[in-house]
Each structure stands twice: as structure tokens, then as C-alpha cells.
Amino acid sequence: PSNDNANTAWLQHCIAHLAPTGLACIVLTNGSLSGGNDVALRRALLEADLVDCIVALPTQLFANTQVAASLWLLARDKRDPRFRGRCGQTLFIHAQHLGIMRDRVHRVLTDEDISAIAGAYHAWRAREQVYVDVPGFCASAMLAEIAAHNWALVPGRYVGFANSSLPSMDIERVHTELAGAELWLERVAGAANEALATVRDALHG
């Protein structure tokens, strides 16, 4: 692990104590998901096929900090016969948009939110359930795809965008509004130049 980040040491400590078919869920800050300092460790964990699922959580879930955190679900053996074989695969769940504000500083996940997150993971892992990627929410990625992203584990890079988040646009209306905005800015700039000239005249007599 790097000398300035205890997250990586904690991950390795937990992995070292996993049983041969053990599973672990670890909460870490989102800084552990990307960045160059720990890229070698993330690569090693992925190439060892230990990272089962990454869940990006929303901000303000914890009483002592407002930063966003993530769940790392680790699996010692993805060939465990209790579940579907998923060697070389990692599930990404983007849950940062979920939750409701309990008050102005604290967010909570609803029962529906928790069911959606758990349901996606269980469907992906289970033998008897059918899993499908949900744009904007969850996606299963192969090792080669993660390598192409320089071993970053940020779910948003893999899940894409929800269809509803990409509304159709009236191009003609956009052009008209942009032209109107440009004209308004030209008028504002002209008025500002006139005001500046008046101030200069007043100062220099």
C-alpha cells in the first residue's frame, strides 16, 4: 500500500483474512476508486479477480462527514458453486442519485433504494436469476474494459446514462435561444463600454 493512504492497507488486511470462499463488504471513500497513487493496487486486486462489485453511494449518508463513500464487495473465489461463475467480471452500481434528505444535512436510503442495490447484485451473482444492465444504474464489466479505463473503479464510467436523463432537444429552438442570448450579451457589452467611457471622462475631466 502507499504510505499516505490507509485505505489500501485496510483492503489488504481484510483480504488476508477471507476464507477460501469468503466474501467481504468494505466502506471506503470514493478517492480509493481512481487516481494514480493506488492504480497498481487496484490492478493487482482486479487481476487476482477479487473485486466482485463496486457501489458508489450518495453524499451525506454519514453523521460525521458529508463526503460520498463507496462499497467494495470482495470475493475470494468467483467460482464458488453457490453462485454463478463470474470470473473476470465486476459489477458496477451507480447509486449516487438515490436517497432522500431526512433533514438539511443528512440523507437516508429508502427501503426501495436498498432493495434496488441489493437486487441488482443478487441478480448478477445468482444462478437462477436473470441479470441485465440498467443504463445509468448498473453494468457488468470485463477485466479488459476496466484496464482500458486505467483500472479506475468509478461506476459512472461504466453504467453510462439513463435514457430519461437524455431528453430529446428541439435544435431549432436551441439555435434561436442561443442567438437571442448572443444579442443580449452584445447589448450588455455595449452598455458596459458606454458606462466605462462615462466613468473615464468623469475621472479625467
What does this entry look like structurally?
The protein is of the alpha+beta class. It has 6 helices and 7 strands, in the order αβαβββββαβααα. The strands form 2 sheets. It has a 5-stranded mixed β-sheet with strand order 1-3-2-4-7, sandwiched between helices. β5 and β6 form a beta hairpin. The protein is elongated.
Short synopsis of the structure:
The protein is of the alpha+beta class and 205 residues long.
Distance between the ends:
69 Å
Largest sheet: 5 strands, mixed
**Which class of secondary structure composition applies to the elements?**
alpha+beta
Percent helix range:
25-40%
Query: How many strand segments?
Result: 7
Task: State the order of secondary-structure elements, H for helix, E for strand.
Answer: HEHEEEEEHEHHH
Radius of gyration: 24 Å
Number of continuous helical runs: 6
Strand order of the largest sheet: 1-3-2-4-7
Strand content: 15-25%
The geometry reads as elongated
Mean pLDDT: 86
Low-confidence stretches: none
Defining traits:
alpha+beta, elongated, two-stranded antiparallel ribbon, 205 residues, 39% helix, 5-stranded mixed sheet, 6 helices, single chain
Topology:
Blueprint: H1 6-16, E1 23-29, H2 39-47, E2 51-56, E3 69-75, E4 89-94, E5 100-101, E6 107-108, H3 111-125, E7 138-142, H4 143-148, H5 156-159, H6 171-204
Parallel strand pairs: 2-4
Antiparallel strand pairs: 1-3, 2-3, 4-7, 5-6
